[in-house]
UniProtKB/TrEMBL annotation:
Domain of life: Bacteria
Domain Dihydroneopterin aldolase/epimerase: 7-117
CDD domains: DHNA_DHNTPE
Organism: Marinomonas profundi
PANTHER family in the cross-refs: DIHYDRONEOPTERIN ALDOLASE 1-RELATED, DIHYDRONEOPTERIN TRIPHOSPHATE 2'-EPIMERASE
InterPro entries listed in its UniProt record: Dihydroneopterin_aldolase (IPR006156), FolB_dom (IPR006157), GTP-CH-I_C/QueF (IPR043133)
GO molecular function: dihydroneopterin aldolase activity; dihydroneopterin triphosphate 2'-epimerase activity
Name the UniProt record assigns to this protein: Dihydroneopterin triphosphate 2'-epimerase
Amino acid sequence: MKPDAQIHIKNLRLRTYIGFNEAEKANKQDIVINAWIHYPAAKAYDTDDVDNAVNYRSICKDMIAHAENHRFLLLEKLTADLLELCMAPDNVTFAKVEVAKPHALRFADSVSLTLSATR
């Protein structure tokens, strides 16, 4: 049995418009993204051919562009959009995305939301 690859994009720090009160709508806020992407990697490591792997750099660039160029009322919407980008490659079998808003609550390090999908 050949193992699946598990890519982890760890602590991607961005700024975006997220939230529904006036201060949140007027000012970009910090977000921290973690994404886990699984795919069957046997073809990639047997051939050492980039075309047989999941291009995590492309996914990361797409996530950056999407988060920075859109406005979101809810963490649910942003997280779902980023999950969709992670699931876009045909060979991805599972993805999980967590988006955290540091400073969202006065006495907490952050508030986060996690969504996952399986193909």
